[in-house]
Design brief:
L-arginine/glycine Amidinotransferase, Chain A; three-stranded mixed sheet; 15 strands; 21% helix; binds citrulline
């Protein structure tokens, strides 16, 4: 159960965010603002109280707040992004979180980690080893979790940006899986909802209190997720897709 979420309104500098999807074009800022507002409304309709942080022009990717902190029920871990241009976002977010959360912990150099690579399944945290998250970062994170009575393990990624680009946990032992994670023995104990390659972007969806928010425009995903009994909400996040960002990246939920 989540009660709250933190989001950051995109700044105009969003158009300069990191992207491996240049073929999709540059994000349209005014559209992004509208989509972000619709995202907030969807979270609210799932019962969450939302803190909306001011835009931060200095960091083009700072609307992707998920990557800079991992909020667990026991501690909050400030990450150290593998993307150097994103490191300063952590200082900004620390200022916001330190007044609300106790047990703040930090990932230190040479460790790197972006929390888009971290998937929470109860008290176990799967940590993707990616171009952004290295082994030192993952080991530091897991050691912190263990100190607080939580657990973690690593998963090596081959293709996707972050672990949750291709996987989402919908509670009830149920996983949305796509691409390289299909047939991965690590996840064989889960009931799996397989997303076809043609809808791979929708593999990043979010469970919020028995609702599942998916990106709009992915009918197979919508049908499959609805069929398992969740209330499905769709939000158009096309402008964030142009920067490889998905629904999970846009909020810290706790
Ligand atoms: C980046 O490349 O860092 C951003 N343009 C997108 C971050 C997406 N975050 C996520 O998947 N958790």
């Amino acid at each position: 159960m989540f009660n709250k979420a933190i989001v950051r309104t995109p700044g105009k500098s969003l158009v300069n965010g990191l992207s491996d999807s240049k073929h999709l074009g540059t994000p349209d800022y005014s559209k992004a603002i509208i989509q972000h507002q619709q995202y907030i409304e969807a979270l609210k309709s799932c019962g969450l109280k939302i803190t909306v942080l001011d835009p931060c022009e200095e960091y083009p990717d700072s609307t992707f707040v998920e990557d800079v902190a991992l909020i667990t029920p026991k501690c909050t871990i400030m990450t150290r992004p593998g993307a150097e241009s994103r490191r300063g976002e952590v200082t900004k977010m620390t200022k916001t979180l330190e007044s609300q959360f106790k047990n703040l912990e930090y990932i230190e150099s040479p460790g790197t980690i972006e929390a888009g690579d971290v998937m929470m399944v109860g008290d176990h945290y799967y940590v993707g080893l990616s171009e952004r998250t290295n082994l030192q970062g993952a080991e530091q994170l897991i050691a912190i979790l263990v100190r607080y009575g939580l657990k973690g393990s690593t998963v090596r990624l081959k293709e996707v940006l972050h672990l949750k680009t291709g996987l989402s946990y919908l509670e009830n032992n149920r996983l949305v899986v796509c691409g390289e994670f299909k047939n991965d023995p690590v996840f064989s104990g889960f009931e799996q909802i397989e997303i076809p390659e043609s809808e791979s972007y929708a593999a990043n969806c979010i469970w919020v209190n028995d609702n599942v928010i998916i990106p709009s425009g992915y009918p197979i995903t919508k049908q499959k997720v609805s069929a398992t009994g969740y209330n499905v909400l769709e939000v158009d996040v096309s402008e964030f897709k142009k920067l490889d960002g998905g629904l999970s990246c846009l909020s810290l939920r706790y």
